Amino acid sequence: xxxxxxxxxxxxxxxxxxxxxxxxxxxxxxxxxxxxxxxxxxxxxxxxxxxxxxxxxxxxxxxxxxxxxxxxxxxxxxxxxxxxxxxxxxxxxxxxxxxxxxxxxxxxxxxxxxxxxxxxxxxxxxxxxxxxxxxxxxxxxxxxxxxxxxxxxxxxxxxxxxxxxxxx
Length: 168
Fold this sequence. Notes:
By secondary structure, this protein is α+β, with helices and mostly antiparallel strands. It has helices spanning about 20-45, 50-80, 130-140, and strands at about 10-15, 80-85, 85-90, 95-100, 105, 110-115, 120, 145-155, 155-165.
């Protein structure tokens, strides 16, 4: 009885940097302390119902924005991209998405999209992933992508904006 050698499973992990969404959290603090505090100081005590209603609307807008910032920070601290021989997997605290290499058809500035419309979203941009150059190279290699077009995009840096899978 002959033992067949098992194909090596090379699993590479790419993690988001902790400060990838720091700019939106800073924007939240600017909003709360720059706008909300100034409006409160300017209008307090609220003498008319219109001022009270406006302040309540601003407070609700801040509350929703704060929840979104908290969500981004939690996702940022737990987001991981896993690459192996069969698939690419994105996982964070709330979401897990896997896409087989055979299904990878096109890369754009924000997602890798499969034929059936499922997608792995890079909402925070590739620069916020440790080792993004290696990830880019591995995706091109593993998915057998051709006609790869890379562009230098402002803020984000170099990204694959278009690629096709070789037809076999």
